[in-house]
Amino acid sequence: DAGVTQSPTHLIKTRGQHVTLRCSPISGHKSVSWYQQVLGQGPQFIFQYYEKEERGRGNFPDRFSARQFPNYSSELNVNALLLGDSALYLCASSPSLNTEAFFGQGTRLTVV
Amino acid sequence: AQSVAQPEDQVNVAEGNPLTVKCTYSVSGNPYLFWYVQYPNRGLQFLLKYITGDNLVKGSYGFEAEFNKSQTSFHLKKPSALVSDSALYFCAVRDLPQGDYKLSFGAGTTVTVRA
């Protein structure tokens, strides 16, 4: 069975640009969450979606947005990129809201 | 607010010796606790969870964790460590009464198992 897949795996962007990260959950999983992991730190919660509705939002600026599609895949969008947005962005899926989350390999975003 | 503390940045053990990675938590209600492992340039891999029931939880790859409510701890253990256990370990907590399902992670503990 395929796990959580994220694309792209690596990305280099310039300050001020916009980026879209994509995530496909494990088949049958209806919940998708996004986390940001800065080097040397634990993952920080950005968003959670369940059945296409936002169910949680972390302490991130409005430049960060996300959505979940009818097939339960998800996109994370970040506008007006800053150097500090450089991080590993992790997507996780779970069958429902309150079960363990299974993570993808992440997208390494570098902002220059 | 929910939070997790991993008091040790690094743990070094010899292969074959017991391994313990410490975690303490703070929540307003009943905690849901998780351990994840991360290998270099990879995502997080689920090891085990505590929801309710037995305080000793068994997980993948021979790992187990002991939930201690009085000490608000959830330490990860492995009786006999392998070199391949060398990785970054994260403890995480979910506090449902807060109304959302986010996971709050500790800063991580780097485990090095020497041959």
- How much of the polypeptide of chain A forms β-strand, as a percent range? over 45%
What kind of sheet is the major sheet of chain B?
6 strands, mixed
Oligomeric status: heterodimer
- Global shape of chain B: globular
- How helical, in percent, are the residues of chain B? under 10%
What is the rounded Rg of chain A? 13 Å
| Largest sheet, strands/sense/barrel of chain A | 7 strands, mixed
The computed structural class of chain A is mainly beta
Helical percent range of chain A? under 10%
Q: Based on DSSP secondary structure assignment, what is the total number of beta strands of chain B? A: 12
Q: Could you list the spans of chain A in which at least 5 consecutive residues all have pLDDT below 50?
A: none
Cα-based radius of gyration of chain B, to the nearest Å = 14 Å
Which two chains touch over the largest interface?
A: A-B, 27 and 24 residues
Mean pLDDT of chain A: 95
What is the H/E string of chain A?
A: EEEEEEEEEEE
Summarize the structure in words.
- The complex is a heterodimer of chains A (112) and B (115).
- With 112 residues, chain A is mainly beta.
- Chain A contains no helices and eleven strands.
- Chain A is globular.
- The N and C termini of chain A lie far apart (36 Å).
- Chain B is mainly beta and 115 residues long.
- Chain B has no helices and twelve strands.
- Classes of the chains: A mainly beta (112), B mainly beta (115).
- Chain A binds chain B through residues 4, 6, 31, 33, 35, 40-45, 48, 55-56, 58, 90, 92, 97-98, 100-106, 108, and chain B through 4, 32, 34, 36, 41-46, 49, 90, 92, 94, 96, 100-108.
Summarize the structure.
The complex is a heterodimer of chains A (112) and B (115). Chain A has 112 residues and is mostly beta strands.
Note the topology.
The complex is a heterodimer of chains A (112) and B (115).
Chain A: E1 5-7, E2 10-13, E3 19-24, E4 31-37, E5 44-50, E6 53-57, E7 64-68, E8 74-78, E9 87-94, E10 102-103, E11 107-111
Parallel strand pairs in A: 2-11
Antiparallel strand pairs in A: 1-3, 3-8, 4-5, 4-9, 5-6, 7-8, 9-10, 9-11
Chain B: E1 3-5, E2 10-14, E3 19-21, E4 24-26, E5 31-38, E6 44-50, E7 56-58, E8 64-68, E9 73-78, E10 87-95, E11 104-105, E12 109-114
Parallel strand pairs in B: 2-12
Antiparallel strand pairs in B: 1-4, 3-9, 5-6, 5-10, 7-8, 8-9, 10-11, 10-12
